[in-house]
Amino acid sequence: RVMESMVDQILEEEQLLLGMTAIKDYDEYTYHHSVNVSILSIALGQRLGLSRKMLTELGMVALFHDTGKTEVPTEVLNKPTNFTDDEWKVIKKHPMWGVRAILKLKKLDELTMKSAIVAFEHHMNVDHTGYPKIRQLMELDLFSRIVSLADQYDAMTSSRVYSRTPLAPDKALSIMLDRAGTQLDPLLFKFFINMVGVYPIGTLVILDSKELGLVTESNQIFPTRPRVLLIIDSQGKRIEGHTVDLAEKDDQDRYIRSIKKTMDPNKYQINLAEYLL
Questions:
Q1: The pLDDT of residue 14 is above 60
Q2: pTM of the prediction?
Q3: 254-259: long-range pairs with CB below 8 Å, 24+
Q4: What is the mean pLDDT of residues 134-156?
Q5: For 169, which of 7, 109, 191, 192 is 20 to 30 Å away at the CA?
């Protein structure tokens, strides 16, 4: 229902639609990343109990948080190696360029101002160690703090030109945990990790039964015991798997299966989309 509201609003705002088209035409990764961040932000906002109107606004502003990257030269944006100091200076300008692009997109109204604020603040960090730097420190907008979480998570778990191998979701959450309280809002991060689960959907896990599986559904009551789609049996053979619940116990009240550790799906040449879409 929230996504329907967003679509209706985007279709009503022709300039916003053109703005998303501009992002897609300029850089495919930035476009898909923006959509992912919007979906994650809405899901987190829903967990926080935001109203439907606020969720729609949150989804909209999240879509445009990186619009300033259309001003970054493509040879820098898609550089396969590490950025030089000068290139980082260019990258760090995209929040300010985003504000300028958003203010040019449509008439000055409440949604435009919220979009501009999030575009400006999403890399500032809650402790203001990020960028851009400002003279007078102030608390970041709620939407900015939500989008920052979604932005970091999706960036770490997605394949990019300069990061072909994405991090496993649990590894990304571990890094984000270290940043909670400094870069990231610690309370919002608790809601976020509860939302995606200790083992987020798409995580490849090896079980104590020597089977390999993909997490397909989190367990809110027992976070370490999600539902898993088995794809490789204990003999190492690919199977047309079935889904098992790791919270399931045997007659002796012992768990039938438990996660031993997470694995890299690229190492096993596993295409997640093949199983999850």
A1: no
A2: 0.82
A3: 255/225, 256/209, 257/207, 257/208, 257/209, 257/211, 257/228, 258/207, 258/208, 258/225, 259/199, 259/205, 259/206, 259/207, 259/208, 259/224, 259/228
A4: 94
A5: 7
- Helix and strand counts by DSSP (H, E) for the chain: 12, 5
Task: Say which residues have a Cβ less than 8 Å from residue 170's Cβ, sequence separation at least 6.
Answer: 198, 199, 200, 203, 262
Q: Is 184 left (phi over 0), alpha (psi -120 to 50) or beta?
A: beta
| Whole-number Cα distances in Å, 237 to 8, 203, 212 | 47, 19, 10
Q: State whether residue 66 is helix, strand or coil.
A: coil
Note the pLDDT of residue 13.
Answer: 61
CB-based contact 260:209 (threshold 8 Å) = no
Span 201-241, pLDDT tens digits: 888 999 999 999 999 988 878 888 999 999 999 998 888 87
Dihedrals phi, psi of 267, to nearest 5 degrees: -65, -35
- CA–CA separation, 265 vs 261, rounded Å? 13
**Mean pLDDT across the chain:** 87
Residue with more model confidence, 230 or 31? 230
Pairing of strands 259-263, 212-217: unpaired
Using alpha carbons, list the distances in angstroms from residue 190 to 44, 132, 139, 184: 10, 26, 19, 11
Q: Over 70: is that where the pLDDT of 162 sits?
A: no
- CA gap 271, 180 in Å, rounded: 31
The DSSP-derived string for 79-124 is -SSPPPHHHHHHHTTHHHHHHHHHHHHS---HHHHHHHHHHHHTTS
Q: How much is the pLDDT for 223?
A: 83
How, if at all, do strands 204-207 and 227-232 pair?
Answer: unpaired
